[in-house]
Amino acid sequence: MKIAxxxxxxxxxxxxxxxxxxxxWGPVAIYLxxxxxxxxxxxxxxxxxREQVDNLRLQRRSLMGLEGKAIPSRKxxxxxxxxxxxxxxxxxxxxxxxxxxxxxxxxxxxQLDKRYNEVMLGLKSxxxxxxxxxxxxxxxxxxxxDLSAIEKVYKKKFKKAVSLxxxxxxxxxxxxxxxxxxxxxxxxxxxxxxxxxxxxxMNAETFCRIAEQQDLETVREICHRSFERFYNDYxxxxxxxxxxxxxxxxxxxxxxx
Length: 257
Hints:
- With 257 residues, the protein is of the alpha/beta class.
- It is built from 10 helices and 6 strands; from the N terminus they run βββαβααβαβαααααα.
- It has helices at residues 27-38, 50-55, 70-82, 105-123, 139-143, 147-154, 182-193, 204-213, 216-222, 227-251; strands at 2-6, 14-16, 23-25, 44-47, 87-91, 129-133.
- Strands 4-1-5-6 form a 4-stranded parallel β-sheet, with helices on both faces. A two-stranded antiparallel sheet has the order 2-3.
- Helix 1 (27-38) packs parallel to helix 8 (204-213), helix 3 (70-82) packs parallel to helix 4 and helix 6 packs across helix 8.
């Protein structure tokens, strides 16, 4: 099953390796691949760079009534059509105000719903399977949700008890290393394991290593507002795609690849 994927940055969906045509995936691909494997579905991920989405020019009438993330997601849907991709995943963060203070649970959930509905509206332009993939805050909130995965990667146990029951709500000032900004919070968690990890980079490679070790059921439970929604949408896409492929096989359609 071929799935087009776009995102917002190197640390989520990845980027083209410097000086090559090869795409180096971020943790978004780890989640998509692992969930598919658990459901006995083989997927081929096809990257559509954010720059390609941003630079696409569409007729004004095709964007009428759209705002916010509905506009780039509509462009993504059009690019999917041009690349002959039947399935697609549009990744974005729900909250991008990096200097803001931590908002309330209700405000955060409302923001997530707003972003989700915007993306869904944009994706409805074509009759393909397309879903949003939107953390309540950032993908780092998902990455930190399974403490045992972090301990496995670094082969160290946390010295102090860490409670992450509401880790997907963590937010704060990006510029303040002591804030609850997810990337800063995760950095402090890893650095606390051992002095030798005090310079551990918060990059796609680090996030992928952790995502590979995560118990996805734990991520679903801890990040039940956003990861669980994505998970259920994705399972629906995989099931529909699998049924479509099986039907095409039975009928011997030339459209099946």
